[in-house]
Amino acid sequence: MDRQEVMEDDRVRSLLRALVRRVAELGESSGDAPLLDTQELGVRCLLLPLNPDPVDLLSPREREIARMVGLGHTNKMIAAVLEISLYTVSTHLRRIFAKLDVSTRAAMVAVLADHHALPQSG
User: Fold this and answer.
1) Domain-by-domain residue ranges, the chain?
2) Who is most buried in 40, 45, 62, 66, counting CB within 10 A?
3) Are the C-beta atoms of 99 and 58 separated by less than 8 Å?
4) What are phi and psi for residue 45, nearest 5 degrees?
């Protein structure tokens, strides 16, 4: 191992020790507080706790497709409006279902409605 690699290993170990200390300080009541916020080699390293809000798991395109499903659009309509293939819409929906741990469109809409991620009917 050359000197540069040793220095990088030391930095990684230092960051990991800082992370372990921070997690121990916060215990289980971390909320949205950063677990680690440091700067190394001119790069800011910000480690945040995982937010369990399912909406945050979805990409912008997945959110758009879920919104359209919530408005009652069929896969074929979604594909036409977004100018993507029907297969792509189905792929997005499979990924949304997996991320939200649901198996139906209705269950997906219910989860997203519970998190105010769908437009309100008016």
Assistant:
1) 3-47, 54-114
2) 66
3) yes
4) -110, 115
State the pTM of this model: 0.58
Strands 43-47, 36-40: pairing is antiparallel
Neighbours of 23 (CB within 10 A): 15
Structure tokens at 64: 């758009």
Taking the domain 54-114, which CATH number applies?
Answer: 1.10.10.10
Task: Supply 89's token pair.
Answer: 């819409």
> DSSP of 19-37, one letter per residue?
HHHHHHHHTT--TTS-SEE
Residues of the chain falling short of pLDDT 70 = 1, 22-33, 49-52, 119-122
